[in-house]
């Protein structure tokens, strides 16, 4: 999928959050020894607020060593069992473009009006939202605290399997790498002066 993450576009195979949670949930018992329902019940009994999904994920990691994707699935299930209802796409968009980030909303509106195809749907996420096609999509995000080279507009990203090798190639060619690499990404300035991003898949 193509995703604008903090105004960044990246390309990879698309999976919806529901598909990812379902896949993780199906294998949870064999990987952790507990089913999703058992984990949700354990969260309820733990004293951690099940509606605070970040706190639940932290507790799962610290107390039980639960891997990241499993943390998300369990926290989602525990919150739903406590009455949480996921926001609609419109609510996600409104939340992302509130206040100082409202100036970035026109980017989203231009993309939404661009006629990306009848097979394109918009999905909600808490930090970004993608326009999803079976294999590709694009979606804007607005996040505070971005690196200075990311605040001026969208950034094109490329999904790579081996980030270290992908970073070495532009570095060895004298390309301007921007900032410190993240655990799964590296920004660089292309020959046209625009910022690009390498993203590990």
Give a topology summary.
Layout: E1 2-4, E2 8-11, H1 17-26, H2 28-32, H3 36-46, H4 53-64, H5 68-81, H6 89-96, H7 105-112, E3 121-122, E4 131-132, E5 137-138, E6 155-160, H8 163-172, E7 176-178, E8 185-189, E9 195-200
Parallel strand pairs: 2-6, 6-9
Antiparallel strand pairs: 1-2, 3-4, 4-5, 7-8, 8-9
Description:
The protein has 8 helices and 9 strands. Strand 1 (2-4) and strand 2 (8-11) form a beta hairpin. The model is unreliable at 1-14 and 134-146 (pLDDT under 50). The protein folds into 2 domains: 2-15 and 89-200, 2,3-Dihydroxybiphenyl 1,2-Dioxygenase, domain 1 (Roll); 34-81. The strands form 2 sheets. Strands 1-2-6-9-8-7 form a 6-stranded mixed beta sheet, with helices on one face. The protein has a 3-stranded antiparallel beta sheet with strand order 3-4-5, with no helix packed on it. The chain has 201 residues and is of the alpha+beta class. Helix 3 (36-46) packs across helix 5.
């Amino acid at each position: 999928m193509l995703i604008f993450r903090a105004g960044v576009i990246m390309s990879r195979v698309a999976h919806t959050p529901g598909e990812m949670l379902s896949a993780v949930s199906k294998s949870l018992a064999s990987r952790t020894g507990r089913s999703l329902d058992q984990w949700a019940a354990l969260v309820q009994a733990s004293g951690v607020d099940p509606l605070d999904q970040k706190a639940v994920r932290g507790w799962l990691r610290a107390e039980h060593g639960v891997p990241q994707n499993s943390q998300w699935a369990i926290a989602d299930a525990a919150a739903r069992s406590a009455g949480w209802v996921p926001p609609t796409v419109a609510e996600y968009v409104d939340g992302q473009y509130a206040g100082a980030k409202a100036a970035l909303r026109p980017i989203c509106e231009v993309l939404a009006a661009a006629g990306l195809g009848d097979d394109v749907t918009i999905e909600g996420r808490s930090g970004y939202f993608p326009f999803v096609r079976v294999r590709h999509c694009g979606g804007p995000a607005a996040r505070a605290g971005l690196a200075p080279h990311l605040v001026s507009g969208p950034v094109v990203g490329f999904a790579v399997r081996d980030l270290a090798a992908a970073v070495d190639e532009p570095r060895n060619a004298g390309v301007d790498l921007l900032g410190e690499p993240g655990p799964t990404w590296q920004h660089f300035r292309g020959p046209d002066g625009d910022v690009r991003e390498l993203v590990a898949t």
